[in-house]
Amino acid sequence: MKFSASLAFTLAAAAAAVAAADDVDLRDLPVTREGTHLYLNGTEWKAVGPNVYWLALDENVVPRGRAVLRAQEHQLPPPGPRHRGHAHRQGHGRYHDSRPHHRLQHRLSLSLMPEAGVINEDAWGPIDWAIYQARQHGIRLMVPLVDNYDYYHGGKFDFLRWAGHNLTQAKDATNPAIMAFYEDPDIVASFKSFVTDLLTHRNPLTNLTLAEDPTIFAIESGNELLGPKWGDMNCPAAWVRDVARHVKALAPAKLFVDGTYGVNATHFDVDEVDIFSDHFYPVDVAKLKSDIAKLEDAGRPSSSASTPGPRPPIPLFGRNMPDCNDWVEHEDGFTIKYGDPTNSEAVDARIRLIRKHFTKMSRGEDIEEDEELPVIPCPLEEDAE
Ligand SMILES: *[C@@H]1O[C@H](CO)[C@@H](O)[C@H](O)[C@H]1NC(C)=O
Ligand SMILES: *[C@@H]1O[C@H](CO)[C@@H](O)[C@H](O)[C@H]1NC(C)=O
Ligand SMILES: *[C@@H]1O[C@H](CO)[C@@H](O)[C@H](O)[C@H]1NC(C)=O
Ligand SMILES: *[C@@H]1O[C@H](CO)[C@@H](O)[C@H](O)[C@H]1NC(C)=O
What we know:
Layout: E1 31-34, E2 37-40, E3 43-44, H1 70-73, H2 100-109, H3 124-136, E4 141-144, H4 156-162, H5 169-172, H6 180-183, H7 185-200, E5 202-203, E6 208-209, E7 216-220, H8 237-250, E8 255-258, E9 275-276, H9 285-297, H10 345-363
Parallel strand pairs: 4-7, 7-8, 8-9
Antiparallel strand pairs: 1-2, 2-3, 5-6
Helix pairs in contact: 7-8
The structure holds 2-acetamido-2-deoxy-beta-D-glucopyranose (4 copies).
């Protein structure tokens, strides 16, 4: 078996305003679903927010968390003897180390699951902090469990390789053998065991397990899950049901999102699914409307995990830490950076439009579209905590 790549925890954030309130702390209450609507403390709740796939592990920041070419890694032998039950301490190889072996070790040191069934406890630090900060700011998170792709933070190909399949995204995206991720009982069991590790982890900053913390309002089965053909929506309904039941058994108060890439009508009878999702790169309002119509016809929750807006969903890129006057680069053409002084007027106009939409959806308030964007202090006072 290959000593395979890492699984880090990806957090796609769906933020929503939580009105600062009286005695009861809304942050301790779960978001719930009744029929096709979501509620928080009896009031209808709508998620409006960006895609922050890089939260807690950013491949754009050099050297920390920077992606290593995965194809290169997969040619490498294991860095050392395998020990089940505890993680390797990989030292602190710097990223610019030109020796591929050392780069691999550095990346594994950031990985929550550097090898099958082994949790690297040290990797929880930034994840715990990110969840804690979201809670402090009244932001809710929607967390996907796995990526469809061989991306830097791990994905379904890692589980396939751990089970002995010689498969990579680069050469096997269309290989029918990838269906083993959904269909092989041993792989499904190893995936569910990983989900158990995630949800039972206790965050020392909140003293809540991920299952307990209402900050994570929803768990998504995965990001853009597909079968061997692009757009096939072939994520078996039986797998969706199995994973949803597993999540709900561990975390009964969480909403479950079907992360199949596209709204697959054969999944509508999976009662455990609270939210169906789709992504639109680039914006495709006709597809969004057709998804919503399908869901309404079926009487299923017509929530889209994407943000209606000029180019949904929008990866929102943050400032660097601790030198927070730097903005992190991610040149995919879909990135937006709030408060970056080098933004063009067109970009700032788009941010104002999104802010207006956010305020309307989350608080029902109308603000002027040309209202100045509030300045965010750098560093935030709360960052001192
Ligand atoms: C939650 O709802 C109850 C009943 O409407 C209300 O009394 C309470 O103030 C609400 N809590 C918050 C924090 O808004
Ligand atoms: C994995 O697959 C590639 C290409 O299909 C092949 O060249 C390589 O020898 C295989 N590796 C193993 C360990 O089977
Ligand atoms: C953390 O939570 C656990 C389980 O609810 C409890 O037993 C423990 O006392 C808590 N620890 C602290 C420091 O509050
Ligand atoms: C939808 O999901 C089912 C399995 O649940 C699969 O057989 C089918 O190919 C998927 N795609 C479409 C377009 O229905």
